[in-house]
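so i finally got all the pieces together for this one. its two components total, 902 residues if u count the protein bits. some of the lines might not be protein, just check the labels. i wanna see the whole assembly predicted at once instead of chain by chain like last time, that was a mess tbh
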Amino acid sequence: MIRRIAAALLLAAAAPASAQTFAIINGTVALGDGSQPIPNGTVVIRDRRIVAAGGMRMKLPAGTQVIDASGKWVTPGIVAGFSRLGLADVDLSAEGADDTNNNGPFNAAIDVVPAINPLYQTVGVNRADGVTRALVAPSAGKSIFAGQGAVIDTGADMDPITAARKFQFVELGETGKDKAGGSRASAYVLFRNALREAAELSGVARPIAVRHQRSEDVLLTRFDAAALLPVLQGKQYLFVHVERASDILQVLELKQEFRALKIVLVGASEGWMVADRIARSEIPVIASAVNDLPASFEQLAATQSNVGRMRSAGVNVSIGMIDDSDTRNLFMERQYAANLVGLQKVPGATGVSWGEALAMITSRPAQAVGMGGEIGSLAPGRRADVVIWSGDPLEGSSAAEQVYIDGVRQPLETHQTRLRDRYRYLPRRDLPEAYRH
Amino acid sequence: MTTRLLAIAAASLALSACAALEEKPKPAAAIRINEDPYPSTYKRYPGVLTVIRHSTVIDGDGHQIVNGTVVFGDGVIKEVGGPELASPAGAVEIDGSGKFVTPGIIDVHSHLGDYPSPGVQALSDGNEATSPVRPEVWAEHSVWPQDPGFSRALMNGGVTTLQVLPGSANLFGGRSVVLKNVPGRTAQDMKFPGAPYGLKMACGENPKRVYGSKGNMPQTRMGNIALARATWIKAQAYKRKWDKYYKNGGDMPERDLAMDTLKGVLEGKILVQNHCYRADEMANMIDMSKEFGYHITAFHHAVEAYKIADTLAANDICAVMWADWYGFKMEAYDAIKENIPLVHNAGACAIVHSDDANYIQRLNQEAAKALADGIRAGIPNLSEAVAWEWLSKNPAKALGILDKTGTLAAGKMADVVLWNGDPFSDYTRPERVWVDGAEMYDANDPKKRPVSDFELGQPGEGDVK
């Protein structure tokens, strides 16, 4: 039955013509670039891209299909800043529905792409809630290096990959400590050694070719070492998961040592304590939005003001779902963003403006991987990932009513909506519930 | 001490009577077992006679008053009404313009204290996963009152009462404890006076996974049920033995802590809080409860409650639910976002719960999502005032404390939250929280912010969280 629903979704997605111009008018438009929402705005889409968006009066070409969004809000689709979307349909005890484990012999060489299944319900549920793109990271197995993450879309089609191998993900906090044998000191030696082994392969025409002789004391497989070469050369982003303030400073030090690294801090629960120094490093942060518990000894200073304080210090911050139902509950990001806005009213707390909060779940994560020119905002030329919401999109009570990815209107039906319709009325009928479909 | 002396006295009386009349000796009178050996030492803190005016009042019992007035003092709600309500002499007046007043939120499913922060092995005290049948353990003996999570639930969540449960590894996980969310030196200091105990039961994946993977029973769902039934049979026999003893006296039967708890359930003194996701499994649990003559108070994590909402209503069983958690395990695969309003609509008792130290800080927002999803699905007669029943009244019912708290009715405990806006908005936070009329949090006063022992001298101590 699940297979049948999936087939139906694909058919629906294939229906809209692609090379057409359409305009969404009369809605409250938020561009996702940090600016405040614009009443009575217009968004024009042509050939799967944004042509124009804003409050201006626009003369629309003849034949433009017009969608009236009166009383609605229009935003770029949500970009989940850090996730494991598409890697699991079910997280626990469901063999075959979970690709998040990584206990094989390779680490940095892992490319998460083959593990992503765009037909998982997790993808559909988030699509139906206005999440249109996600940064997807593999999970660390035996090594501090988890492998290479991708940027995906949530479209109801078989082509989820927007950009493969966009970043390498490494654990250098408490998880990294455990992977390295129980000590952060060990993790840092492993890290430096790995980059040394990668450096050995620089200048080699085909780094993974067996003909090239490597040093005899290598720890990494040839594949893993070769995979770190683009990291070392600054051609691939390096996502580093750390939470505690002292760990963050260690990572900033790495940037001094390996100057080409394009580091993005992930997590950073205690970032506010060293916010000035993160800002000076110009390293962006993808943070957990609302962590406020000393859930571990690396998060003792956690507060929901973390994001706001880092932002106030000038750090480029976006929101991710770090170890927070990361395979599935990405739709929570807009609620979290609203919570940060709400902090503005709490004495002693530091919140963020509404426009900034939206940017943290749209353009900022896109920028963190150098894709701000492609996705995450409604600026001309961007991919037309657009959501029409029933109301303020940061309110969890608002719903995505229309979702476009690359200009293609998406089906919003899921396993869940089908179940709702089946069981909406319980009185017994002529046939069992199984016949209601 | 006293009871023991009495027992000896009774025994000697009986002996002497026997000697005198040379009749068959009468059995010794039965001695009642103390059913509350770890009693609450909670005492409400002092409060002042308080009037909150000009706020929107949601009373938790389905009503909303625009420009309402709430009066409380001596630890209890005095009066709730409109702007015409007079202030008693000497009352402190609070201007609630633009704000909302509600009953404190009650979370019926928390592991604060038994799975506290920091989440390290040394403090992991929620599952006595050494046997699937452990009704003898009591959650209160695991509760670490210094868990910083309690303060977050109070300040960010407006949670004034919570039930701390053992985990769900076991078919019979042990007794729950209901706590006032007021910091204490001991768990007893937090214990809600007069709240009945709960028994945590679990069906489905967890028990069969935990024990099946060790090669022990239960390994299957049928194993779950068989072992639970076998246990209830023992409990019935145990209860018969004690009933007979209490009726006729004689030799006291040997006590069994596990059976004591189950006997309490069979006597209706201990409420069954049953972790159960799937509709078909809830039906099995209901049949089992009828087979052995007990009542299930609530199904927790009931993600498929919407499939049998009519059955739940007919059997007077509450469904304790999340707004939108789904799919993290197979038995959560059929979760739908309209679960809570559909259960409510069927006339059953719907409850929003957290099971999580983070979600407990946002239960109002979870209710807001469920409410909005219900309205969008065309479910009639839903409103914010109705939805607040899922957050305080129905939880109080499921904990057996609705006569004491859960709504803003005169005479009930003054467990009150003043929100800085509409609590069904994600932008809103508690501004002030009172428990039994004592102000335990004030966003404008750093001194009215609890800081646990664990956090003293740590980075971020006393910060706004």
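Residues 1-19 of chain B have pLDDT under 50 and may be disordered.
The first strand of chain B starts at residue 50 and ends at 58.
anyway lmk what u think
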